[in-house]
Amino acid sequence: MDAPLMDQILNWIETYPLSSTLIGLLLFLAIVFLRDITQKTHTIQRNFPIVGRLRYFLEMIGPELRQYWVAHDKEERPFDRTERSWIYATAKGQNSNFGFGTTEIQYEPGYPIIKHKAFPYPEANAYIHNNDTSCIPCLKVIGTKRKFPYRPYSIVNISAMSFGSLGKNAIMALNRGARDSGAYHNTGEGGLSNYHKQGADMVWQIGTGYFGARDHSGKFSLDVLKEKVGENPCIKMIEIKLSQGAKPGKGGILPAKKVNAEIASIRHVEEGKDCISPNSHSEFTNVKELIQFIEKIANGTGLPVGIKSAVGEIEFWEELAHEMKQSSEGPDFITIDGGEGGTGAAPLTYADHVSLPFKIGFQRVYTLFQSQGLSEQIVWIGSGKLGFPDRAVVAIAMGCDLINVAREAMLSIGCIQAQKCHTDHCPAGVATQNWWLQRGVDPEIKGKRAAKYIQGFRKELLSLAHSCGYEHPGQFTGQDIEISMGMNRYQTLEGLLGYKRDEVKFTKLQDYTVFPKRQA
After folding, report:
1. DSSP strands (E only) in 263-309
2. pLDDT at 116 over 70
3. Measured on CA atoms in the order 366, 367, 371, 376, is the torsion positive or negative?
4. How many CB atoms lie within 10 A of CB 77?
5. What is the mean pLDDT of residues 87-112?
6. C-alpha distances in Å from residue 412, one per residue of 85, 172, 173, 343, 362
7. Does residue 520 register a pLDDT over 60?
8. Alpha carbons within 13 A on the beta-carbon side of 263
9. Which one-letter DSSP state was computed for residue 129?
10. Which of 48, 72, 335, 365 is 20 to 30 A off residue 520, Cα-Cα?
11. Where is the Glutamate synthase domain (predicted)?
């Protein structure tokens, strides 16, 4: 274009700024119109050029509109606004009470009622351990036959969430929260990172990829595992992950672009290559081999070893109970993950329809082991939307000794339930590796909030126990809970599920505050 002509155009734009802006806008819209009407990918844009784009914009911001302006306090899933508000207030040390009475429909089928006693346990008599008014130790010692048995200080602990799925600041915040509240922190199958080493007790989870415990060929290595355990006395237990509630029997892949030098070092994989978690273990293919694998790790490390699994077919559990009865070997603890449990990413069908929900799955497994006389020697851990006092009480009354929480702990450090965990664009900076988004999570501040959530959770559990005449929540039974069966019909949890949990041999809370120590 000639310079004089360009000068004339620029002069005209300067002289008539409004007209030139309108002409520019019309040209832009004309280009968009032509592009929309000729493309064949998007039907709405092809049929309604330009204005059809508004539909995609509204669809993009739809979740936010519903969450903040449209949805009722009790409508959202997986956690409604009332539940999230309780966690946020508890984590911040604010008033977590609600006014004016319940908004629940108490005759709705499945609704639980905790039956209080006419003469509660006097709170003035409650034992306070080391000035911690929220201390609730586990009533069982895990791995009594191992070299390094372990009694958790807290019955509420942080469930498996890997570094990689969560950002480094989120992992550090959760670990500091666990440290300050006395809870343990599960690594997730991604292995033990430096971000997990903020002072909390750790449970090292080993999945199908054997990350952090594998040799150069990718096979499980007991020597590597023993070396890592020896270097890290914070590791108190090892959990073999068979499956999780949100996607059992489904493997995973961390794309090559996300496998940086740090991830590669932690997981013992090659940098810049896809990191694959198979859908099944290569070290064992049946129950006998699983038990042998458990014993090999326990004998090699001296640590309690357990399994985590969702519940599907019952034959596996029948065979496991039978083999444990015959051999007197097997897992020291069993974590049952309900189908309602969380995940960073899962196919919709898996998340919605594969594996039984917690109450059904736990009942089936627990009663099998109970029939073999094994349930008392195993420590039972429940997970899957149990991060609220009422749900925890029900799980304990069913037979759980410990409760693991994951998404609820994420909420305590700032998660807003945007449900973008699988996109790496978590706006709260929790479930992302994006450096800019992660900076929103301050490990020091958020760590204190995670601790307050766990402590507040435990305080309310203690309060409920006292209201029901108990000193420790582990004393709850199925007779203490009634479940609505519809209008004017309630049934005890024990009667509904058809079994009675093992009787708790409880003396007084102070007797359970001796914690075996594993030294380096």
Report:
1. 275-277, 305-309
2. yes
3. positive
4. 9
5. 92
6. 10, 13, 10, 17, 26
7. no
8. 24
9. B
10. 335
11. 155-470
Q: State which amino acid sits at residue 207.
A: G
The H-or-E segment that residue 155 falls in is: none
Q: In this predicted structure, what is the pLDDT of residue 2?
A: 62
Tell me the three state secondary structure of residue 309: strand
Query: Quick one: tokens of 294?
Result: 């458990």
CB atoms within 10 A of CB 176: 24
- Beta-bridge mates of residue 202: 185, 235
Q: What is the CATH number of domain 112-512?
A: 3.20.20.70
Q: What does DSSP assign to residue 70? A: I
Cβ pair 387, 457 in contact under 8 A: yes
The sign one gets for the Cα dihedral 454, 459, 464, 468 is positive
Q: How many residues does the chain have?
A: 520
Whole-number Cα distances in Å, 404 to 128, 160, 184, 189: 23, 8, 9, 15
Q: What is the pLDDT of residues 372-426, one digit of tens each?
A: 999 999 999 999 999 999 999 999 999 999 999 999 999 999 999 988 888 888 9
- Model pLDDT for residues 288-345, shown as the tens digit of each residue: 999 999 999 999 999 999 999 999 999 999 999 999 999 999 999 999 999 999 888 8
Cβ-contact 397, 359 below 8 angstroms: no
pLDDT(519) > 70: no
Q: Where in the chain is the domain with CATH 3.20.20.70?
A: 112-512
Q: How far is CA 384 from the centre of its chain?
A: 7
CB of 73 closer than 8 Å to CB of 83: no
